[in-house]
Design brief:
The chain is an alpha/beta fold. It is 35% helix and 11% strand. The strands form 3 sheets. The protein has a 4-stranded parallel beta sheet with strand order 4-3-5-6. It has a 4-stranded mixed beta sheet with strand order 8-7-9-10, sandwiched between helices. Helix 3 (88-95) crosses helix 8 and helix 8 (205-217) runs antiparallel to helix 9. The longest helix has 22 residues, at 221-242.
């Protein structure tokens, strides 16, 4: 979701419909590439730079969020975070120094690619939240917490059919309901074809948009702008050093999210931000163009015929053994160049929507273009 999402026993207990929603959030795509050698693809254009300064927020602030107008008379001070499948929102608030505004958080992976981030997430109050069978925070718990802002990773979470609460019902209670802009189409039956296409073609700018929007809502715009500029500069530096070099095939998988598939294989992430992160690191994702349902049905034959020079093993729980997972893949698919060279890198939250994409770009670049 988007941030993103998981492979814990909790995910494995989710109904198939929730698995499909999770896969849709990740906008993962599947399509075997036809060539096993690295190619030279044009590097993406440098990221445009945000303004160096930002004006203070003038309240009341009205903004459009996933088709709803939200009006803030002041900065929220009692924030409740739903969607345990993501850490994008809680990490973004922490990055902006807003963790003291959170009264209840259901988001946690237990690890992070940013040193100290997992500990900061763990320190955020949970507010005693528990999730129902659809991994949603029940409406009774939301209302009892008396938040002034509820933040969700995906549009569909504000659906009372899965045991949560609608945005209209929250508004009636004087509570604003904010959806991560990256996932406005997920679980939205009225999403247009253009909106779906934009979601499928997301870049790291989707992560930055979340930060900048939160910056406006909480009146910390300068802090958000400064952080986004720093991240853009880090990514641009990587792009500069890998420009013109061969672009190896980089496979991004989350073995712990195997429950998203129909056959127990690792969940393959591709399309949108996942392709963009790999591309900016100087690689290419060998999978693209398929729907989330097609991704869930990926089979061993498709993986076996896919050229893979580097495997990125994604973890979202500290108990996952990345080296063991990589060895299992190398044994199952010995024809990969990555298998022959035992070449893999471990990441967690940084390839997903959230504030840490620069880390993923840097680490993938270091793995496929060492010494450059």
């Amino acid at each position: 979701m988007f941030s993103a999402i998981r492979a814990t026993p909790r995910l494995r207990s989710r109904p198939r419909a929730r698995h499909a929603a999770t896969a849709a959030l990740l906008t993962a795509a599947l399509l075997a590439a036809g060539c096993g050698t690295a190619t030279k693809d044009p590097a993406p254009a440098d990221l445009p730079q945000p303004p160096l300064t930002a004006a203070a927020t003038s309240y009341p602030l009205t903004l459009d969020n996933c088709g709803k107008q939200l009006t803030f008379d002041k900065a929220p001070s009692r924030v409740l975070l739903t969607s345990g499948a993501s850490v994008a929102e809680v990490e973004s608030l922490i990055t902006l120094g807003l963790q003291d505004k959170i009264i209840a958080n259901s988001q946690s992976y237990g690890l992070s690619d940013e040193p100290g981030m997992a500990e900061k997430v763990a320190a955020v109050p949970t507010g005693g939240l528990t999730l129902n069978q659809n991994s949603a925070v029940p409406r009774e718990q939301i209302l009892a917490a008396k938040p002034d802002l509820v933040v969700s990773t995906w549009y569909g979470e504000f659906d009372d059919k899965i045991g949560s609460i609608s945005r209209d019902a929250l508004s009636t209670s004087g509570i604003q309901a904010f959806v991560d802009p990256a996932n406005c189409t997920v679980g939205n039956p009225n999403a247009t074809a253009d909106e779906k296409a934009r979601a499928q073609n997301q870049t790291v700018d989707a992560s930055f948009d979340l930060l900048l929007t939160l910056g406006r809502i909480f009146d910390v715009q300068q802090r958000a702008v400064d952080y986004v500029k720093q991240q853009r500069d880090r990514i641009a530096a990587v792009q500069h050093r890998v420009d013109g070099k061969p672009r190896p095939n980089v496979l991004l998988v989350y073995p712990g999210m195997a429950a998203m598939n129909s056959n127990g294989l690792p969940a393959v992430f591709a399309g949108g931000i996942y392709d963009d992160v790999i591309n900016r690191a100087g690689g290419r994702n060998p999978f693209s163009g398929k729907t989330s349902d097609e991704l869930a049905d990926i089979n061993a034959e498709a993986l076996a015929s896919t050229p893979v020079d580097l495997v990125v093993i994604g973890r979202y729980q500290a108990s996952e053994d990345a080296a063991k997972e990589a060895d299992a893949l190398f044994t199952k698919f010995p024809q990969w160049a990555a298998s022959k060279n035992k070449k893999f890198v471990t990441l967690s939250d940084s390839p997903l929507i959230g504030p840490l994409n620069a880390i993923a770009v840097e680490k993938i670049a270091d793995a496929i273009h060492p010494g450059n």
